[in-house]
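Please, structure for the following, as tokens.
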Amino acid sequence: MALIELVGETDIASAIVGEALLAREFFADPVDRIVDGVLDRSPARLPGRSCKVLFEGLEARPFHDAYDCKMACEIEAVWSQLRCELRTACDYGPFSVYRQAGSNFTDAEHWSTLNLLLPAGRLAPQASLCPATVAMLRASEAFCEVAVISRLMSGGHILPHCGPWNARLIVHVGITTPEAAQMRCASELRRWEEGRALIFDDSFEHECWNNAETDRFVLLFAIWHPGWLNHELILLKNIERHIARIYWDSEHSGFLKQFHEFSMIANDTRQRALWPTSVPIPRGWAPAAP
């Protein structure tokens, strides 16, 4: 099953399937496209789109307009307030080599990250370096999965690859953006700009390279695809918390295993969960344990 490939854990995959089937019984509105996705009933992948789990009915295009994303617009609007803390974090780190979870699509020294938010919105140890940025991200209902500062070294090339699923979009906000650094998603090429959000669907094949003499830095985070309905997001956010259990409770592989703070972060119940409180939750429905 593609879902097992995605999470790397049979018991977690089974819990996700059970969550989806249970939700179908609780919700008055349909969640069939989520059920079909986790059960691998979706149609054949498009060329250049080899994500492991594919959900139907979501607009499929490589890049999305930043002005259509409230969260991206808010970050761009206060960029002058965020620039200082992000640049300071870029200067002092600490950065760690991005763990590629079994897919070696770049030389190890070329791509490194400074982790701010971990799966299910948990704080990374370095979150205190960028308090205003982290607060904005955690306050948004659109925020999904993780947030990092991503560094692509001078001369670095991240080879063509696809993300794990199309439930989300990836946002890059340029911090240090040399002209000779750019990315490709599907057949489209884009360059980063300081303080501007670049939003792309990483379920399409994409790659990045930096032919400049200086490193490229971007704030990288994921948002839920805007095509999801509110009741579907309730289920998806709970599924995400199941997936996050790979990180918190397991030392085995999975696509979230690239984060190196496993031994540094406890399952701290004081951290704010991402379970939505602004959307009505059906009677008898409870979030998965973090």
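Confidence is low (pLDDT under 50) at residues 248-290. The two ends are 24 Å apart (CA to CA).
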